Amino acid sequence: MSVFDNLKISGSALTAQRLRMDVISNNIANAETTRSADGEPYKRQQVVFSPIKAPLTARTSGGGNLRRSMEEGVRVASIVDDTAPPRMVYDPTHPDADASGYVSYPDIDVITEMTDMISATRAYEANVTAINAAKAMATKALEIGRG
What we know:
- By secondary structure, the protein is of the alpha+beta class.
- The chain has one domain.
- It contains two helices and four strands.
- A hairpin with a 5-residue loop joins strand 1 and strand 2 (65-81).
């Protein structure tokens, strides 16, 4: 695996984690949103990752070709809505209260979202470290080649 492959893999992870942080931020910002564009309370969203696979062809000892795939990074496969029911709070004075006086709030736990944010941030930082290490190796290889 070349330095460029490492940069490509870590770069794809940076992009994916950045989108994950954006989705988490959106969840936190809408934790109290009782009415979205569809008239329902906001639904918590989650990012689904999947590997980026690239074809890999290798020669077998018998002279044939062996086809496989190799992971070459990660991508965001989709952003899905949480299926948890809304959190019901009794507040008959709220403009979105139903006939019984209950308001439907998104089922968003800010502590869970912050924990997910820390996880995404650490993953992002780990990939930045990997990119910096790959750059340092490439620089050292160039220095050796000049010497």
